[in-house]
Each structure stands twice: as structure tokens, then as C-alpha cells.
Write a structure and sequence with these properties.
single chain, mainly beta, disordered N terminus, globular, about 230 residues
Amino acid sequence: MPGLSRLVMPVLLVILSGLSGVANAQATPVPFSATYHLRLDGWPDADVQHRLSHLGGNDWQSEMRASVLTAEGYERGKFRLQDDGVQAWHYASGFTLFGLGERYHLSARELATLPDRQSALFILSRGLDTAPCQRAAAPPCRLAYADHKGRPEAFAYHVGAPQTLDVPAGAFEARWVEGWNPEKPDRRLHLAFSVQRPGLLIAVEYYRDGELASRMALTELDRDETR
């Protein structure tokens, strides 16, 4: 994806998917509105907006927005909570660069077998307590998701133990996930998910060839659960 999506999405959204079988059906989502501060190597810092919204009934929406210089991008996924997991049913994303850009959409039919990236982010965070790859010597968990054009992608990861993480927004109980694309093992994505709030990121670190290339941390969290 060109523009902002190429800059931000590998750090935020290539996190990707979980199969419904690894999700913890007992984890109850809570609406939130979060702001992260993103530092991209070679680019000006940026703020990222992330919101999990309850659409009514069992339907939810996860959305992220960010801008860097003359580029702007967004990504949102709608999904439904079911007894056997989570089912994505709509996805939209887009970017603009110098006033030009593109838009992408995936329908319920296109998401019938794989979740979109935003829905997968929620699914992944919801299943950390029961993931079999928490043991140090355990093989990595392997997940599949659909990219912005509906093409299948892969993600391998390990899950760390819960710990208290201090960020500008405060202290949070979090679990680190270390993940990578099996075809690009030299690039590593470290994601710290909130233990209490499914879908909420506390911090992100992106490594390329063993060096930290970008990082992100939670700076503000709206705890209004009536949204």
C-alpha cells in the first residue's frame, strides 16, 4: 500500500489474524478510544487514533487513523461476536498522498473464511491467555488473515507472560507478542496488548535486521464505557 498505509500499517496492522479457535470466548470487549504516539525511523513523529465501538447487539467496529506530513490513512473492520468465536463482515481502508489516493473494501462474502486486519487484531488479543505458544520452547502459533485486497497472509508469533508496562498513559497489565511473517523472518513485530481490554494496544516495537526501526506507545485512553 502506498502513502501512509505503507509507513504505518506494517507497524500497526500486520499483526494479524487469529483463527476463531484460539480466541477466548469469555473475554468481554469494552468500547474505548485511544491515542498512540508513533515514531517512524526517518519520518516525523505522528499520532494514531484507535477506537473500538459497539455498533449494537453483537456487532463491533475497530478503526485506526493516522497522518504523516501530506499523507493520511485509515483502516476499519466490522465483526460480530458469536458463540464459537468472531466473524468479520465488513472492511474498509484508504489513504491519500498529496490529495491523491485509493480506497479498499471487503464484503462479508470475501471475509467468510479469513478475518480482515482490524478484526484479526481484536481476535489475536482476545486469545492470548489460551495460546499454546506461551512456553519458551513451544513452536510458534501460526495465523492467517486477509490483507486490504483480500489476499491471504501469514503471521507466526510467541506470547509472553503478563507484566506491568509503564507508558505515557499510565501503568497497564499487558502481554507482549513477538511476531513475524514466515517469509520475512528478519522483520519482527513486538506488540503489547492490554490484559483487561481486548483489542487495546499498549505499545508496539518494529525491528528490522535486529535494529529498532519504529515504536509506538499509548498516550491517552478514554475509559468511558458508555460509548
